[in-house]
Each structure stands twice: as C-alpha cells, then as structure tokens.
Design brief:
single chain; 18 strands; four-stranded antiparallel sheet; mainly beta; eleven-stranded mixed sheet; 1 helix; 243 residues
Length: 243
C-alpha cells in the first residue's frame, strides 16, 4: 500500500521501518583486516574554528559510498597519521567510526599551507594526502532577527573563492539546525539569505550562527574506489536573538 494513502497507523509503521533501516545501515561495521584493501573509500576533513581556535582533522573509511556504506574500523596493519602522529578513534553516534586529531590554541596566522595525512591499508600500502584550510572568511551577523522578515548574513574573503569552494551559514536552534548556502556565485563577497519560511515555525529564542568557507575535492590518493577531502575555515559562533 502506498504510504501517502495509508492510514495514520500504517504511515507510522512505514516511517518506523525506514528509520530502523537507516539505523541499521549507519551502524554496519567491519574491521579492515577482514576486507579487500582496494575496496575502502577514504574521507578526510580539515576544519578550523576561528572562535575557539581549534584545528580539527577527521578521517573515515567505509566500504560502499553513501548512507548505506559499511563503516571500517582500522585493524591489523591499518592506521592513519597526521604529520606523523597517529589519529585516534573517537566516540560517535549511529555507529560511525571516526579518527580524529585536534590542535588547540592555533591563531589564524599560524595555520600551515597544508597538512599531511598518511593512511596505511592492511597490506601496508601507503596513501599520502595533503589537506589545507581555505582562506579566512569574515561575516557580518545581524544583532537581532525578526523571523517574519528573515535575515541576511553578508560575508567577504580577502582573496577569491575557487571553483570548488563555497560559503554557507550553519544555524543551530533549540530543536535542530539548518544549513544555508550562498547560491549567488559571488567570488569575493556575498550575502547568505535565510527566508522567513524557514523560521516561521521556530519559537522565540537565541539562534547560534556560524559562517564557513569550504573547499571539497574528489581527487585524493586512495585505494581504487576513490575518496574525498574537505577543508573548512569557520568563523566563531554568534548568538543572535530572534523574535
């Protein structure tokens, strides 16, 4: 029976089934010494938060791309290092397996041009990648928000966005969050528009807002199935009252 025309009871069952499938897929895990090394897809993220001055690096591995991919836990000879220091697995929800290193008290002027991530597969083969943090992005946040009007966040960069770069706002609410990308194609400055229809159901509260400049590439040194890397430079988080 089509879920759209089903009774409320059947609709709930359908949604619960979909949710259970999602959790099952997200929780699927396998050790790297139990699979063929060439089947591992690699994902790397380098992120800098200007507000707390923390530089974070994350690595994830899985067999099969997308939500249905099986998370890979490094075992046997497999390991991942950042500039020679081994990255450690961190606790995560939904069964995600994430390896991370964080470096604290890094001022923007102390960021390196690039950082080296070395991944050794279970056969001992080395895959080296160099990840970088995009240039600084500056945002002018509003002092307050009227949700009936929506709002804008102007942003600027000192250089110019590349073809594989974008700017987005990350908003956190009492009951969730949302991402809003600047779709204007601007290279040096632009405005991220958050329309009233995305705010009208929200209650009066303080919104936590942050703007990030991100650079993504799908060309990384990885096993034959490929991989991707993302670099981000984010402003500090600002609390904005919304009426």
């Amino acid at each position: 029976m089509n879920c759209i025309r089903a009774s409320i009871y059947t609709l709930l069952l359908c949604n619960l089934f979909k949710l259970s499938v999602f959790f099952f897929l997200a929780c699927a895990q396998v050790k790297s010494d139990k699979i063929v090394p060439s089947e591992v897809y690699s994902s790397y993220t380098a992120s800098y938060n200007e507000g707390d001055r923390i530089l974070s690096f994350r690595a994830q591995y899985q067999v099969g791309q997308g939500v249905g991919g099986t998370q890979v836990r490094l075992a046997g000879n497999s390991r991942v290092l950042l500039n020679g220091t081994q990255m450690q697995e961190i606790p995560s929800t939904l069964g995600l397996i994430i390896y991370q290193i964080q470096i604290a008290n890094i001022s923007p002027g102390k960021l390196n041009d690039q950082y080296q991530i070395d991944y050794y597969d279970n056969d001992g083969k080395l895959y080296s990648n160099f990840v970088s943090i995009p240039g600084k992005v500056t945002a002018n946040f509003p002092r307050s928000i009227n949700k009936a009007d929506g709002f804008e966040i102007p942003w600027t960069v000192a250089d110019q966005l590349g073809a594989d770069e974008s700017v987005y706002a990350n908003l956190s609410f009492n009951n969730g969050g949302s991402f809003h990308k600047d779709e204007s194609g601007a290279a040096r400055s632009g405005r991220i528009r958050i329309n009233s229809d995305s705010l009208v159901t929200r209650t009066k509260q303080n919104i936590q807002a942050q703007v990030c400049r991100t650079k993504k590439t799908n060309s990384v040194n990885a096993p034959t199935v490929g991989g991707s890397s993302v670099g981000e430079y984010c402003t500090g988080t600002v609390s904005i009252p919304m009426n």
